[in-house]
Amino acid sequence: MRKKISFLFVVALLSSCASSGPSGLWDYTVTGTPQGDYSGTLNVTKKDAGFAATLNSQAGEAAFEKFSYDKKTSKTSGELYFSGVPISLSATVAKDKMTGTMGTGGMEWPFAATKKK
């Protein structure tokens, strides 16, 4: 009986961790842009009907107009405006890592993030 309870506890714990998706504070980098590399924090919060996110870097802060997460595919996407320029994010979330691209005007650059503990 004890093994069964322990197993159920582990399954419940893993399920709760997996369901958090992209929520949390992430250290990120975007490399190779014409203006150089960017780094900072991505703050993702769970809202009633989805998620909200804010990107912070040495260039300033920008809130995402749209930010979504597909639990089935573990993919996240978002759109924000920085200095009037539309920027898109497309990434895959795997535990404490997020990898993908950020781009604008048909150009894309590597995006990588690690969730802060």
Record field, number of beta strands = 8
Overall helicity: 10-25%
Task: Note poorly predicted spans.
Answer: 4-19
Characterize the biggest β-sheet. 8 strands, antiparallel, barrel
Tell me the number of helical segments per DSSP (H or I, 4 or more residues long). Answer: 1
The CATH superfamily is identified as: Quinohemoprotein amine dehydrogenase alpha subunit, domain 2
Give a topology summary.
Layout: H1 2-19, E1 24-33, E2 36-47, E3 50-57, E4 60-70, E5 75-82, E6 85-94, E7 97-104, E8 107-115
Antiparallel strand pairs: 1-2, 1-8, 2-3, 3-4, 4-5, 5-6, 6-7, 7-8
Describe the structure.
The protein is an alpha+beta fold and 117 residues long. It has a single domain, classed as Lipocalin. Helix content is 15%, strand content 65%. It has an eight-stranded antiparallel barrel.
